[in-house]
Amino acid sequence: MIPEFSKPSVFMRDPQKVQKIMQSMVKAGFNTLQVISDFDMTLTRFAYNGKRCPTCHNIMDNSKLISSEGRAKLKELLDTYYPIEIDSSLSVEEKLPLMVEWWTKAHDLLIQQAIKKDHLAVMVNESDAKLRDGFQLFFDHLHKHNVPLLIFSAGVGDILEEVIRQAGVFHPNVKVFSNYMDFDEAGVLRAFKGELIHVYNKREGAMLNTGHFQELRARPNVLLLGDSLGDLNMADGVQDMQNILKIGFLNDKVEERKQAYLDSYDIVLVKDETMEVPNAILLYLT
Length: 286
Ligand code: TMP
Ligand code: MG
What we know:
This protein is an alpha/beta fold. It is built from 11 helices and 11 strands. It has helices at about 15-30, 55-60, 70-85, 90-110, 120-125, 135-145, 155-165, 200-205, 210-215, 255-265, 275-285; strands spanning about 10, 35, 45-50, 50, 150-155, 175-180, 180-185, 190, 220-225, 245-250, 265-270.
């Protein structure tokens, strides 16, 4: 069907189901599609030259503009809670309170660091954050064909917007649901706005934004991209959904998590740092 599906990184539990969904989407037309994507470790790379790439939070955590004491504390949080986030022996119910704890502690530390709005662009520019290879085609193609792209992230909205702005792909068809910073009149971080979004409450986040999905009700076909099992809930607000094709990037702890990913994502991309497969699907659907 698609030559990219024979890449060694591509796994599917039910290739026939994938084929059926795609045929149905082709029939409905590209103008009935909406794309919903996670940001960290989905649109951005997990690793580059064997080194981990930063998430939105890590872009700030690693910055020289943060005190070394603050950096050490944020690193300690990451070392404590990231293993819990990806632990397949714990249920989502068990992880939930711990994720809230992680986000709350991290945001408190960032507020203590009195981060300046003016510094965000420099932090992003000096970071090792990288969008996946092929990101340009992905963003530009969706823009060219007026397909709405919702970036739904438990990261930090101000940072992710800056990443895509600096990459030249923050097009008007892109909408972001994320955690946004609240700055005082002097441009110093004082809080985070609205309801907290963490990796395992994206369903609640979707429900707070019914207006967006209402506007897109003429687009009942969804391409979903994520890297966490929590990302599967990003499309919970979509109205009158007809077809959904779910692509999951499995970046870490592959053997432990592969079966769970195969059971819930239609296509699983194992340690694939590129947008080749999503791009090939978009071209096929166009
Ligand atoms: P995402 O929804 O765009 O993937 O963003 C969430 C990721 O952010 C999640 O995988 C964990 C990560 N994270 C950090 O790296 N540092 C932090 O301090 C926090 C709270 C989250
Ligand atoms: Mg992610």
